[in-house]
Each structure stands twice: as structure tokens, then as C-alpha cells.
Design a protein that fits this description.
about 425 residues, Rossmann fold, eight-stranded mixed sheet, 14 helices, 8 strands
Length: about 425
């Protein structure tokens, strides 16, 4: 009995490893399950090896190797571990991939051109050691968090944001606005962006993470209107927490990648700023993670019409055929322009929920049109939502985001730290 049970557990573990290394693309209805299996396995590869090793020891003591299914299960387990170690090596290789991407977009000497003030003021203390063992340890003694500031009080908890700042205090610090994902229908400001915000706060940044109204109760463009209201609040109030309202970058993952990109490309659009049309909603840089960039699928980057059906039913609440202009207005792919801010687009090759082909197409359009730098970091074997907790890949990627933003911020300082305008 123990032999067969160990064999079954070994096959189950090997399927998770397979989902991490070679996620199947068909059938499409399995994408969510493949995502969860591949995501947790690829980012926690070493953790998987440890628990499987402990399980193997337990099965050995229970007599699993007294019959041939146990030995076959051991062979499968060893092959699975080889795959997990290969996945771990790929994740740790993200540093080299990121460095090539930044050098290509910013110039080989970009690091040498970072303003000395940035290096001096933003020397980070080391992260808590517990993060090396517990990937979900987000509390950081170096970071002060102010919860639930109301930027849109009439929307209750959906109209609030949190501020992350250095515990030691700071003045005139660069600011990052984080927008969470969740298919425009779920999610909360504390659930995403934690490793990045903690890292930047340790480096002397001030970060704000905002909620926004969710579908199906909300109808687009409510989501981006709320994000712009959060940005306006940050411009008006962030000095109270040590931030510089003149330098605000924006980031987000998945639906947050879509909203952050749309925010960056639609500054001053009155359709997205009802009642506050004159507010300055520019950002100095945008870092979208695994975003959705085209609601129309005009370029065939979506493999099927699953996204469109969801948008029509729950988010846009109208059809693409009847209101194509609204879908294009909601799509960063169709909002690209020469005055776009610097972009660092990040996507994984193994993303099961947001196809990497769409990120590639979006970057190509940006590079052909924008006057600002456009960096593209395509991560081998990375799944959707890979950076929501600590992992070797997450560590390398957030350090790359740090270097990209430091370069952009240095340009802002060299221009004399112009303040944000309120027209």
C-alpha cells in the first residue's frame, strides 16, 4: 500500500514540475489550474524539493521501497527534482536577463550615469532574514505603513490607499503608485506589489498602493477613473509622508498592468477624469507586470475570445461590435503616443493567463512611437503573478526595477526637480 501511495504522490509532484517547466497551452479551460501549479512550483522550487524529500523519507520509513512501485516512484521523484533545480537555476538567472534588457534600452553605461545623490540617499539596509525562508513574510521593520487613507471616501474601502515609507523618515523622495490586479473583478491593495514596495521603501522611496472599484458592480472606466483619483491624491498629499509630488512612477500586475499602462498613456484625458479634468495625471515612468494591453485583440495576440467574453459581460458591459471605440480607448495598445513616459514592460514566457505575445507587440509599438526609453524584460519560464511573494526571481526583478527607476529619477533630478503642475 505504501509503495503505491508513494508512486501516486511522486506522479502528482512530477505533474507540478511539468506545469512549471513546460506548461500545456491546451485545453484552454485548464489554464487557471496550470497557472496555479506552475506559478507556485517555479517560484518555490527549493521549497518543493524540501517537502518532497521529507515526504520521501517518511514513505521510506513506512516501507514504500519494499515493492517495485516505490522504486519507480523514487525514479520519478528524482527526475522531478532535477527539473526543479533547473527551474531554480533559471529563476536565479533573471539578473543577467534583466541587465541585458536595461543596457539595451538605457545604454551600456546607464548605471554609471545614475545621479550620485540617488546612490547616496537610497542605500538600502538588508531585508529581513526571515524572507529567505518564508516567502510570504512581508512585514519589514525598516518600513512604516499608513493604512486606509481615503482618496475617494464615498466608495468606502474601495476608495482607500496605503502608504509605505522608510521608518527613519525621508524628504522629497521619489514616489511609486502600485495598482493591484485581479481581472478587474477581485483583488485588494495589500495582496500584490509587497516585495517591490518594501524594497523601494528601504531604498528611500515612498510608495502608495490603491484600491479601486471592481466589476461587475463597477463598469469601465470606473477602474481607471479611481486610479487617476488616487494619483491626484498622491500629488496633493504625499509630501506629508516624505514624497516628492513631482516624481510619481506607476506600476501594477495583470489588470493592474493594464491600468498602470493606461494611466501612463492617458494623462489629461477628460473622459477618464470626470469632475477633475484639470488635475495633473502625468507619471514619470511606468512598470507594468504581465499586463493585458488590447481589449480588441486587433492584432491576434489573444489565443481565443475568452477575455473578450469576460470583458463584454462583466467589465465593459457592452459588446465590442457595438462600441469598438470604447474598447480601443480602454486599450493601452491603442493609446501609444510619442510623449509616453519611460516604460519597463515585464512578462514571463510561461504566462498562462496573459499571453506574452501581447506584451511583445505592445513593446514594439511603444519603441516605434515613443521618444522615451522602452525596456522589455522577458523572463524565461516565469508564470503570471510571479513576483507577488519573495523568490530568487522576484529578488532579481525588483532590483532591476529599482535600477530602471533610479535611471529615470536621475534624469528628473538633472532637469532641476520640476514640480507637478495643477492646471
Amino acid at each position: 500500500m505504501a509503495s503505491w501511495l508513494f508512486f501516486a504522490v511522486s506522479v502528482w509532484g512530477a505533474l507540478f514540475t511539468w506545469a512549471a517547466i513546460r506548461p500545456p497551452r491546451r485545453p484552454r479551460w485548464m489554464n487557471v489550474a496550470v497557472f496555479f501549479a506552475g506559478w507556485l512550483t517555479s517560484e518555490l522550487a527549493l521549497h518543493h524539493v524540501v517537502w518532497q524529500a521529507l515526504a520521501t523519507l517518511g514513505f521510506a520509513l513506512a516501507g514504500a521501497f519494499s515493492a517495485w512501485p516505490g522504486w519507480l516512484g523514487l525514479g520519478i521523484t528524482l527526475a522531478s527534482w532535477a527539473g526543479l533545480f533547473a527551474s531554480l537555476r533559471t529563476g536565479r538567472g533573471a539578473h543577467a536577463v534583466a541587465e541585458r534588457s536595461l543596457a539595451e534600452a538605457l545604454g551600456a553605461d546607464y548605471a554609471a550615469r545614475v545621479d550620485p545623490e540617488v546612490l547616496r540617499r537610497h542605500a538600502a539596509p538588508p531585508p529581513p532574514r526571515v524572507q529567505r525562508v518564508n516567502p510570504f513574510a512581508f512585514r519589514d521593520p525598516q518600513v512604516r505603513v499608513v493604512r486606509d487613507l481615503p482618496y475617494a471616501p464615498e466608495h468606502g474601502k474601495r476608495g482607500r490607499l496605503d502608504v509605505y515609507a522608510p521608518q527613519s523618515g525621508v524628504r522629497d523622495a521619489p514616489v511609486l503608485l502600485q495598482i493591484h490586479g485581479g481581472a478587474w473583478m477581485i483583488g485588494e491593495k495589500r495582496q500584490q506589489g509587497q516585495p517591490l514596495m518594501a524594497h523601494l521603501a528601504r531604498r528611500g522611496w515612498v510608495c502608495a498602493a490603491a484600491n479601486y472599484r471592481l466589476s461587475p458592480k463597477a463598469t469601465f472606466p470606473d477602474h481607471v477613473v479611481d486610479c487617476k483619483r488616487a494619483l491626484r491624491f498622491v500629488r496633493e498629499r504625499i509630501e506629508e509622508y516624505g514624497g516628492d509630488p513631482g516624481f510619481v512612477a506607476v506600476t501594477g500586475g495583470s489588470a493592474g498592468g493594464h491600468l498602470s499602462s493606461l494611466l501612463a498613456l492617458s494623462a489629461g484625458d477628460p473622459a477618464f477624469q470626470p469632475g477633475f479634468e484639470a488635475a495633473d495625471t502625468r507619471v514619470e515612468a511606468c512598470v507594468p507586470f504581465y499586463g493585458v494591453y488590447d481589449f480588441t485583440n486587433a492584432f491576434g495576440t489573444q489565443p481565443d475570445d475568452g477575455l473578450l467574453r469576460m470583458l463584454e459581460r462583466y467589465v465593459m458591459k457592452t459588446t465590442l461590435a457595438a462600441h469598438r471605440a470604447d474598447y480601443e480607448r480602454a486599450s493601452p495598445m491603442h493609446r501609444v503616443h510619442a510623449g509616453a513616459p519611460p516604460f519597463l514592460v515585464i512578462h514571463g514566457t510561461h504566462d498562462s493567463l496573459a499571453p506574452v505575445a501581447e506584451a511583445r507587440f505592445f513593446v514594439d509599438r511603444l519603441r516605434k512611437t515613443s521618444r522615451a526609453p522602452v525596456a522589455y524584460l522577458e523572463l524565461p519560464e516565469a508564470q503570471h503573478a510571479f513576483e507577488v511573494f519573495h523568490s530568487p526571481r522576484t529578488s532579481h526583478v525588483i532590483q532591476a526595477v529599482d535600477r530602471f527607476l533610479a535611471s529615470v529619477y536621475s534624469g528628473y533630478l538633472s532637469a532641476g526637480r520640476p514640480k507637478a503642475r495643477e492646471a
